[in-house]
Amino acid sequence: MDPLLQLLKENASLKPAQLSAMLGQTEAEIASRVKQYEDDQIILGYRAILNEEKLEGDKVRAIIEVKITPERGGGFDRLAERIAKYSEVQSCYLISGSYDLLVLLEGRNLKEVASFVSEKLATIQGILSTSTHFILKPYKQQGVLIRQETAESRLAVTP
Questions:
Q1: Kind plus residue range of the DSSP H or E element containing 17
Q2: For residues 83 and 92, what is the distance between their CA atoms, to the nearest angstrom?
Q3: Topology of domain 53-136, per CATH?
Q4: Where in the chain are the domains?
Q5: Are 5 and 37 in contact (CB under 8 A)?
Q6: What is the CATH number of domain 3-39?
Q7: In terms of Cα–Cα distance, which of 73, 71, 70, 66 is closest to 89?
Q8: pTM above 0.85, yes or no
Q9: Using one digit for the tens of pLDDT, what is the confidence trace for 21-72?
Q10: Where does residue 65 rank: exposed (0-12), middle (13-18), buried (19+ CB within 10 A)?
């Protein structure tokens, strides 16, 4: 992978001046390369990874395994793209195994997630079955540990 892309993947908030110092290139070269990556849709966006436990307001997140019937001439793509267009869907992947798609979903509450699955997802022609798993607690997200390790508070061992 291009070192510029690797640095941006690890920390998208790095400024062109920082990147140019790290890579030994001018800021103009860095800015041009980043713009080209954006134009070529290699860089699709920039996001912050948030610790949801420290934010006000609860959200319910779920992982849904979806079994589908591939369409003639479209395979899995047409149905996957249709599912991915829903605003509740955060991510959608074609996977191997006993299910075909893995859908990451976010809602304001349990009822909203259940409603999406029963009223929107399960009613799509070609969906054979779904299996919903609710995310109870994240430990690592996109390569970032959610909780940083703290010093151990173990009691001293005495003889």
A1: helix 16-23
A2: 8
A3: Alpha-Beta Plaits (3.30.70)
A4: 3-39, 53-136
A5: yes
A6: 1.10.10
A7: 66
A8: no
A9: 999 999 999 999 999 999 999 999 988 888 877 887 788 999 999 999 988 8
A10: middle
